[in-house]
What we know:
six-stranded antiparallel sheet
Amino acid sequence: MATSDPNFDESFATECTQRGDRPADWIRHRLIGLTKLMEITQRLAAQTELEPILEIITEGACQALECERASLFLYDEKRRELYTRVATDLELREIRSSIDSGFNGWVGRNKKALNISDPASDERWNSSIDNQTGFQTRNILAAPLVSPRDGRLLGTLELLNKKSGPSFDQGDENLLLAFAAHAAVSLERVELLENFRQSRELEVSVEAARKLQLGFLPQRLPIIEGYELAAYWQPAQGVAGDYYDVVRLPDDRLAIAVADVSGHGMGPSLIMASARAMLHVLSRTVSQPGRILTLLNETITPDLKLGRFVTFLLGALDTQRHTLSFANAGHGPAFHLQRRTSRIRHLEATSCPIGVTLDELRDAPAPIEIEPGDLIVLATDGAIEQRNSDGDMFGKARLEKLVCENQTVPAPKLLEILKSQIAAFYRGSHPDDDVTILILERKFA
């Protein structure tokens, strides 16, 4: 074997002497290891499942480096533990050890290989596994599995008891580091694929939940003689804690509801579904908005956790007298625009939000008289709390100003104007919070 590098010749001779090998034997060992590494690399490239990858790595490393046992430990970052997923000829089902102790812990913390020819003489040695299994560990070679993408520790690969020599040598260490590098690439590929799969499953689940929640909202707004309704619902995260509805009451008035569960996402959407179900049950026998919200409060409050609450405005429209009675559990924005005077009257809260207190929710003292051309605008706070790139809030004043400036256009057209203005205001493709707007317009005769 000819080479022009004197350092290589010296290290080669030294290693052969230490191992008691002839040069031909040394070359044979290295060729076996490198051939196995190439074979393992090809097999790993075809795998996308974790268990086969772990088995290929441990069995391949054990064969290539001619040792008695090989174990692959994965790193549990939350518990700061290394634990076995696959080991050759292991009597124990699982081994767990702290990252702060032992040979493997040192390898994981320092992200360096460790070659120990006499483990029992090292202060880091833990003989408990040998005592449990009856196995005798004579020498150890271990290497870290490190993410090539961000340098995270993924695990360690540990080999025990070199068969073809008194201990592992520098060549074995280099070969194991090569195995560890390929193993880390394969483990991270599995992790990325699993994250993608979970993300895709979550997207599918959220989309299914969105479709289900859309089914809770009115599929078609009712046609009301002398009036027109228009509604908009836009969740921030696929599903929403916002809710609107139109329900017939026992006294033949029409209940108009807008509610907002604190927060947004899956949790608030489940609370919203419960509130919607209770409203539909209660509205079959109770006509007073305040009484309905009181019963709703008593029913839902025990199930509200983690500081959740629900703002809820429920109005009762009398299309014969053209009045709107309402109860408001801390909800806004909500206002009445009188076309004749362009005056805005806010539908002020008549109680705290649902979940904050169990006090009785009463109707507002006097019903609102709705004249031809008047508008009732009910929205959730997501409509006014969106912020632009400068950090400015859309705000209640801007919403009211837009309604005043466009009060002569039909309700559906007004709704489109509000939608476009709000969407142009917030950053990104989705609002920061759920947005709901319901507009009731009394038409001219």
